[in-house]
Amino acid sequence: MKATNTNSSFSYLIIGSGRVARHLGYYFHLLNQHFETWDRSQDPHALARKVAKSSHVLLAISDSALLGFYRQHLAGHDKVFVHFSGAHHFEDMIAAHPLMTFGPELYDLSFYQKIHFTITGARSLQEAIPVFTNPFSVLPPEAKARYHAYCVLGGNFVTLLVNKMLQGFSEMNIPAEAAHLYIEKILANTFQNPTQALTGPLVRKDAETVHANLQALSQDLYLPVYEAFLKTHWPDYPQK
C-alpha cells in the first residue's frame, strides 16, 4: 500500500549512495514522494543545481565526511539540512537518527513508518522531513554520544556476539536454526521483563561453570569480552 498524502510544497535531495541513502530513497518512493539524488559518481556541477531546487537536503553520508561536505558545498544556502548521525550534532544541521539497522534487503512501507527517530536541532521530525510521520524523541546535543554508545552496545555488539556463537556452533555441526529460536526468545523475554530476563551461570553464581567457560575460551579473542561481562554483572566472582 502506498501513501497518497504527499506534500508537494517540499522538495528533497538525498546525498549519498550507501545503505541509508538507498533505504531513504525507497521510503520516499513508497510514499509517492518525488526526490532527487546526488553522489560522488555524478557530475559535481549537478550538485549545486539540485541543491538550489530543493527545500530539504538530506546528507546520508559517513559521519566523518559530514562537516567537511557541508562547509564545502552547502554552507550559506537557505535550506533545511538534515544528517543521520546518531553520535554527532553540527550547528545549522538537524540530526535525525533512525533507530534501525539497514541491511541489503529493503523493507515495506509499514515497517519504515514504525522506525523511531531521535532528533537534535529541531523540535520534531516533521521539521526535518515533513513527509515522515514516524515516532520520534528529541535529544539535546550533549546526550548524543551516550545515546549512540547505547545503540552500539545493544545493536552492533549483540550482532557480533550472536555471529560468534553461530560460528562456534557451525564448527560443532549445530544448525543455525537451533540458535535462532534461542536468541529470538532471549530478546522477547528481555523486552518483556528486562530486569529478570538474564539466565545462566552469572545469575546462578555458578563459579564452576564460569571457570569452565573461561578455560574453554582461554585461547579465544572473545575471552576478554566474557571477562568484561563477568566483571560487570558479578564483580566479586571468586577467581581460581
TrEMBL record:
Domain DUF2520: 126-228
Gene3D superfamilies to which the protein is assigned, alphabetical: NAD(P)-binding Rossmann-like Domain, ProC-like, C-terminal domain
Signal sequence bounds: none
Pfam families: DUF2520
InterPro entries linked to this entry: 6-PGluconate_DH-like_C_sf (IPR008927), DUF2520 (IPR018931), NAD(P)-bd_dom_sf (IPR036291), TM1727-like_C_sf (IPR037108)
Name the UniProt record assigns to this protein: DUF2520 domain-containing protein
